Amino acid sequence: MFFTIDPVLYSWVILPTLIFLARIGDVSMETIRVIYISKGIKYLAPIIAFFEIVIWLFAMEVVMSDLANIANFFAFAFGFAMGTYVGLVIEEKLSIGMVILQIITTEESNEEILSFMQSENLGVTCVDARGARGDVKMILSLVNRTDIPRITEYIRTTNPHAFFSIEDVRYVNEGIFRPKKPNALTGLFHPFIRPRKKK
CA–CA separation, 190 vs 194, rounded Å? Predict the structure, then answer.
């Protein structure tokens, strides 16, 4: 005896759910692919693009085959929105690449920050600068994105009035960098990520 699915249940619940999940998959892939392109990771981006478009074609074919079903349209739209969020969460977990951390502090508090960053095996450059309220110290450092939460938490705790900004970096050559500990996600994609070149 074969198991039969109610046509109404299939059309208004099962298909919209599949479309919703498919859109989450392809949009999250698109978000990650764009980020990888911006980081210069050219080997992994085409692979993601292939699976992304296959899933998108499946979802689009289902929607276009029954234009009278409004549930498919809502599933398509909600899947797009949720896929954008999921893609950003995955990218945050991957924490690929390095960033420039720029910290501006008073002369009294900069030594404490410098000591902390040097104890973390981070390369730092400290220069004298002139701010709106007087002389300041500008600390520059190239750090792994995975190290940012720990560093910024330390700055907020010990120097709550210190100004700092973070900028993405696409390419880095030479320098002193803290070894990055791969997590489960970065371990999967590590073979495709181009390492920094050394002289």
Answer: 8
Between CA 73 and CA 79 the distance in angstroms is 10
Reported in sequence order, the residue ranges of the chain that DSSP labels E, i.e. its strands, are 98-105, 125-131, 134-144, 163-169
Residues of the chain scoring pLDDT < 70 = 1-3, 107-108, 171-199
Taking only the tens place, the pLDDT of each residue in 15-28 is 999 999 999 999 99
pLDDT attached to residue 187: 52
Q: How many Cα atoms occupy the beta-carbon half-sphere of 170 within 13 Å?
A: 8
The residue ranges of every structural domain in the chain are 7-94, 98-192
Question: For residue 143, with 0-12 CB atoms within 10 Å meaning exposed, 13-18 middle and 19 or more buried, which class applies?
Answer: buried
- CATH match of 98-192 with 3.30.70.120: yes
Cβ–Cβ contacts within 10 Å for residue 187, how many?
Answer: 9
Closest-CA residue to 92 (of 32, 133, 48, 132): 32
